[in-house]
Specification:
The model has no long low-confidence stretch (mean pLDDT about 80). α5 packs antiparallel against α6 (about 135-155). The protein folds into two domains: about 40-55 and about 65-155 and about 330-485, no CATH class; about 175-325, no CATH class. The protein has helices at about 1-20, 30-40, 45-55, 75-90, 100-120, 135-155, 165-170, 175-185, 205-210, 225-245, 250-265, 270-285, 290-310, 315-320, 330-350, 370-380, 385-395, 400-430, 440-455, 460-480, 495-509. It has about 500 residues and is mainly alpha-helical.
């Protein structure tokens, strides 16, 4: 009887209301309602698996289309997991000790204070869904969600038996970036999937098909992040030692196929990031002192010789991706790549002049839409360079500039503190963690250092990369049950009785 009453009183009216909402599911209010109902139905599962779900979507290119602003899926799970962890901690039967060291938590709290204070002093956060007329609030949400995600990710320990599964999901989650391009290849019948996967990654591919002028260089953008994810999976599953094992050549063959697929994106960052992480992990595993150094050298020379001979036969996008190497490529790819570098360098020189202006109080993320529209019109009329439009929007294409311009010297100090504390954690876990996790800990350390070097010297944005750094170190803490340190040497106890006995014996003699 109670179950029947529940159906008539609650479930049937809800089903009727859902039917009306689904008649026009693209309205923002209907999306929010449908999403809320779905989350309510999935709440029991989410309560039990929120931590695992956060790891699995940490690098996924997926959007919560049912919420205003279409936030990325990792942001939803980070905030949800943070709230669940915060609420469940006081209710736990046994007191749970935090997994994060104080220095690391302190750096993120300091960075959070800098971001919030700077936002308040520079015109607010600028969230249009809250009625603001300005742009830029999304970047504040990214930063806050990344910090919340770190504390959620490192709130509980991953069972040792699930370590490989979780790291595999962490690496392969970025393979979802390729779905956007695959949907475009499949045709309009599958375009509904763009509600969940970002259409922006397929824009270049679609533009290239419009005509010979626009389409002279066709780039499949989503293959870049997907290749990085699959390459990182190879490094964490087999390690450098396993990849260079001549007894199992299929491993290196698969790895090289993955790298080649990533070159089709046209991003030089794909090859650069994979090469950086590969080289750092090679030294972190100590292989530079073994026979694998010769194997590594021979493999590198072979790849370089292949590119030198056949680079011009590769697709134009792949030629653009390797154009920074001393190999001959098609003039179209070379000009496009060089133009991108010169454009970026000129933008950096222009922005660098504003560093003294924003040294003490950063610019923040808020952008006046009027200024943005004026800059767009000025670019179209040729009054200003195109990169000035990006400067107005706060997109600096540089990791260091993305920290100091928005948040000044205080943001730089907080970010450096966080990076230093993270490296300490990753280094300690690699050196002193459980031997069963050695391969995983070595990969996480190498991945963090490689991505940070790329952020520092090549390309990056703090609002985007902060979650990557937080997720790497947060996963390391969760897998290892905290930050591992060198074991303390037992102290020798001083026994005064032995000394007195020895003195007595000497006196007797």
């Amino acid at each position: 009887m109670p179950r029947t009453l529940l159906i008539f009183v609650f479930i049937l009216p809800l089903a009727v209301l859902m039917g009306f909402m689904l008649a026009d599911p693209l309205m923002s209010s209907n999306m929010a309602f449908i999403g809320g109902v779905m989350l309510l139905l999935l709440l029991p599962i989410a309560l039990a698996a929120h931590h695992t779900a956060l790891i699995w979507v940490s690098g996924a290119y997926m959007s919560a289309f049912f919420l205003p602003g279409r936030p990325q899926m990792w942001m939803i799970m980070a905030c949800f997991s943070f709230v669940i962890s915060l609420v469940s901690r006081p209710l736990a039967k046994h007191k749970m000790k935090p997994l994060w060291p104080r220095s690391l938590a302190g750096s993120l709290i300091f960075l959070l204070i800098v971001v919030v204070v700077t936002g308040q002093l520079t015109g607010g956060v600028g969230l249009q869904i809250l009625g603001s007329q300005n742009f830029g609030g999304r970047k504040y949400v990214w930063v806050l969600a990344a910090i919340a995600g770190f504390f959620a990710l490192s709130s509980q320990t991953v069972p040792r038996a699930n370590a490989n599964r979780e790291v595999t999901a962490f690496c392969l989650s970025s393979v979802t970036a390729a779905v956007s391009n695959l949907v475009y290849m499949l045709g309009p019948s599958f375009y509904f999937l763009y509600l969940l996967f970002p259409v922006e990654l397929a824009v270049n591919q679609a533009s290239a098909d419009l005509g010979p002028v626009i389409g002279s260089l066709k780039r499949i953008s989503g293959f870049g992040p997907a290749a990085i994810g699959m390459g990182m999976f190879c490094l964490t599953r087999w390690g450098i030692r396993g990849l260079l094992d001549f007894g199992k050549p299929y491993r290196m063959l698969f790895f090289l196929i993955v790298v080649f697929g990533g070159l089709l994106s046209g991003f030089r960052s794909t090859l650069t990031i994979i090469a950086l992480v590969f080289a750092i992990q090679f030294f972190a595993e100590g292989l530079h002192r073994t026979r694998y150094a010769t194997v590594f050298l021979i493999t590198g020379i072979s790849v370089f010789v292949f590119l030198s001979l056949f680079a011009t036969s590769l697709p134009l996008a792949a030629q653009r991706a390797v154009s920074f190497l001393p190999v001959k490529v098609d003039p179209t790819a070379e000009v496009d790549a060089k133009g991108s570098i010169e454009w970026r360098m000129e933008m950096w020189r222009t922005i660098a002049r504003d560093i003294p202006r924003y040294f003490w109080l950063g610019k923040g993320y808020v952008v006046d839409p009027g200024d943005l529209a004026l800059a767009d019109e000025s670019v179209r009329r040729g009054y200003i360079e195109s990169y000035e439009m990006f400067i107005k929007a706060g997109d600096y294409h540089s990791g260091p500039l993305s920290v100091i311009i928005p948040f000044g010297i205080w943001g730089v100090l907080g970010f450096i503190w966080f990076i230093y504390a993270s490296i300490q954690v990753l280094w300690g876990n690699m050196r002193y963690g459980d031997s069963q996790l050695t391969k995983i800990n070595t990969f996480l350390f190498s991945f963090f250092i490689g991505r940070f070097l790329f952020f520092l010297f090549f390309f990056g944005g703090m609002e985007l990369e902060l979650w990557l750094f937080c997720s790497i170190v947060g996963l390391s803490l969760s897998l290892n049950g905290g930050a591992k340190k060198a074991p303390e040497m037992p102290r020798l106890q001083f026994d005064s009785r032995l000394v007195r006995s020895r003195e007595a014996n000497l006196a007797h003699i």
